[in-house]
Amino acid sequence: YQAKHSPSHVVIYDRRMSEKVEREVAIAGQLQQALKDGTGLELYVQGQFNITTRELSGGEVLLRWHDPLMGRISPADFIPIAEERGLIGALDKFVLQQSCQAIQQWQQQGRGLSQRLSVNVSMASFEQADFGIWLEQLLDRFDINGHQLELEITESGLMHNPKGALKTASLLKQLGISLAIDDFGTGYSSLAYLKQFNATKVKVDQAFIMGITDQERSQAIVRATIGMVRELGMQVLAEGVETEQDAAWLVAAGCQFAQGYLFARPMRINEFADSWLPS
Ligand code: C2E
Ligand code: MG
Ligand code: MG
Ligand code: MG
């Protein structure tokens, strides 16, 4: 296809690429700066619920970033850039540290969260040889128990380095930290592997959940996943539950936990505490 190689096409392609790269470099630079003292970074938490009783079952920490020059940037944009440009280790540690600090603070105020706080961790962090030890020291430093923490690893991240993941997973288990597989259905793992990995929870990706009552193919996938996950002794949570119809369908299919705008939006961590941990 000749036109593709014509000079004008090459120029357009190059300019687009360089704009994209320039933006990524700018984001990475600003993010690196933000991670130094946490300026512009804020932890949000979204509640997780028992889908039948609607009681709080936990909370997922979601990072928010407002850059003074570039404005609000979504984690869907900055997390992949942090991963590509070597910043994700610092970012994950920042979020874990802030999360543990919050747990300690609630404890000291006598309003400890009885459920776990769930923190997203990139595979690049998870596979670091010293990650388990770093976490152990973190728990020590804030005097909190591993039972108060859960880590979420995406299914695709997991399959990127299954061996490395198994090592860290066994260390975490000794600390009492539980593991959830995030965005399940978008990677290519087998449930048998997840069982070996000792995951406590499988989070079914929101792509399968949104509007599930109209989608027979998603229904088949989700029904089979719920059955197998529970059969293997793990818990199943549906992500992105937005409507009562979706929730009703999930209850009927045997889903145990849910997260989504129907139940709660992500909110500032202090707001989350005020809503769910009344003093
Ligand atoms: P995730 O871990 O799968 O988080 C769920 C995402 O779905 C969040 O987007 C949340 O705000 C959104 N969400 C929750 N309920 C609903 C719903 O009912 N409808 C819709 N449309 N969306 C819903 P968010 O906060 O933009 O985060 C995007 C992704 O960025 C996360 O996906 C996670 O993979 C990553 N991420 C966020 N914070 C962190 C972090 O601190 N560390 C790391 N490593 N990754 C993070
Ligand atoms: Mg998550
Ligand atoms: Mg997810
Ligand atoms: Mg996701």
Automatic annotation (TrEMBL):
Record-annotated EAL domain positions: 24-279
Coiled coil: none
Name of the featured protein: PAS domain S-box-containing protein/diguanylate cyclase (GGDEF)-like protein
Full protein segment contained here: 391 to 669 of 669
